[in-house]
């Protein structure tokens, strides 16, 4: 690290020029990168996806999309009976609003289940072809416009469905990626201004801007090699903002500390690189490990987020360890003005706090573990699935239309129908058998091209309730089981079938993912901390913290204790199926950052001759404000992400934000100091047999004062 610092300082003008070119390239190419991102949640090889693709190929729509529900409510005093032709023209017109639409209604099924019980409203299912482009707008408005033109005088036409409800009637919504990034940057600037109390507060923001645009540049070639999920753009912008600022904050803080100790500017940069730079490298690798673990899952969109997400710490580390020292080595002392805050001693508050925790380490550890255990208990009640229709919207045309249908006795299962692909000659026997399945409300066998093409037919199954979580999909499992023994049945598609596939493909491989992350992280941290016990504690606490975070998400979103008060969104009834995996992959590395920051400094102080307790107090006294500020910056970035449209994005953002705050407070400021103090000399033991393959020096504890845990044997 010393050699690297010397190299950067010797060539600092070239380094700044290089990143200036990257900045320009990023501005020019970021738009092209985002245009190439896709929306694709398919699961290749899984039964539901295979059937969905067969349906799409044969019929041109449906399979892996939730249909639009087009409803026509006749004026008071009129009923659907006697006006079937008028209603049929509305649905026929809706089917012409865009290419490839497929309409299932009373006209081609002969089933009066498409009417409400008061006979005033009729509805149709409109299936469409899935478009993977994130710029694709919903078809709500075109379908409504076409239907209204064909509607009888005085009739009210509405369009609802999972997608219109999720958008709240707004295809866009939210401030967008750029707006969210600016919101996060504004919050970060306020925190940095408090931390530095000088113009140095602008430096981490500059580094973050370069890092984010560099990530988009590196992401562009990846979009040509494979499909990359549109979600990556939000992660790059907001998480990239937080991570790059955190790393730069750590480096600049250590540089200021060395300057306040009397070192000249050159030496201060070199020492900051030796200590803070060392911690940044290990932190970046830890974050990358968590994200790259997603590639073991047989799910393309998660893999793409693993590849794309891993570029975030890579770019952050590169910019922080090159651009930051290059700027500090040139104009650092000049921009550190007015120098109100000094770093020549540990924070009084954090030193007093840590000393109190160390004195009452048993109480602190017990209280923190009890709180985490309670949240882990809540986590055990998690339901994996999709947000319920009740939580998607509370106002707007789509909500009003759904309310009309529900009041008329239409089951919410119409929002998430199953499509069963069968051979045409067996369609009616299959439909008759599936109508007897528990939890099925209606079964339709459409006539004509809407349900029959090339010797294949689609049997549409409407469940009693929408199949949006790991418990409500039981009816889908029963339908799948029934079709296995029915002649001519090919397979079952729909959102419920997709969830079952996802639970099998992803959560079936979850133990492997956890094992890979934990093992690689443990080995990395053994080398970083030169200890066998500290990395084990770090990995276990991270897993407990993540489970507790998901417990808080169950309370906040699934049970609605917070989502309604803050976002005006009712209890979702489930946590969206892909979000726990993403939270695990991102938070495992991000929260480990703080563990690395704190324990690296504690280890440094211990190696300087302090006792374990003294090292803990001094180490957290030096890093407490840094970790708290870094966590707050990341939290503000996630808060900006939560301002985006859609319940799922808000759920992901709040989960990440809650996890960061929980980890930076309960875990890092209570459990870490109390447990390190309790373990005493055992923290610092790395025998030669373990040190040799890692190419680090063995470690033995020096004598501890009485009252600590027993000291292990040297060597």
Can you describe this structure?
The relative contact order is 0.12. With 715 residues, the chain is α+β, with helices and mostly antiparallel strands. It is elongated. 62% of the residues lie in helices and 7% in strands. Strand 8 and strand 9 (456-463) form a beta hairpin. Strands 6, 7, 8, 9 and 10 form a five-stranded antiparallel sheet that branches. A four-stranded antiparallel sheet has the order 2-3-1-4, with helices on both faces. Strands 5-11 form a two-stranded parallel sheet. Among the domains are: 1-35 and 197-344, Multidrug efflux transporter AcrB transmembrane domain (Multidrug efflux transporter AcrB transmembrane fold, Up-down Bundle), CATH 1.20.1640.10; 67-160, 2-Layer Sandwich (Alpha-Beta Plaits), CATH 3.30.70; 391-505, Lrp/AsnC effector binding domain/regulation of amino acid metabolism (RAM) domain (Alpha-Beta Plaits). Helix 25 runs antiparallel to helix 26. It has helices at 2-10, 12-35, 47-59, 84-94, 106-109, 140-150, 162-167, 176-196, 202-225, 231-260, 265-292, 300-320, 323-335, 348-359, 361-379, 389-392, 397-407, 427-434, 474-483, 495-507, 510-529, 533-558, 563-567, 579-607, 612-641, 647-679, 688-694; strands at residues 68-73, 102-104, 121-127, 156-160, 384-385, 418-423, 440-444, 452-453, 456-463, 489-493, 575-576. The protein has 27 helices and eleven strands.
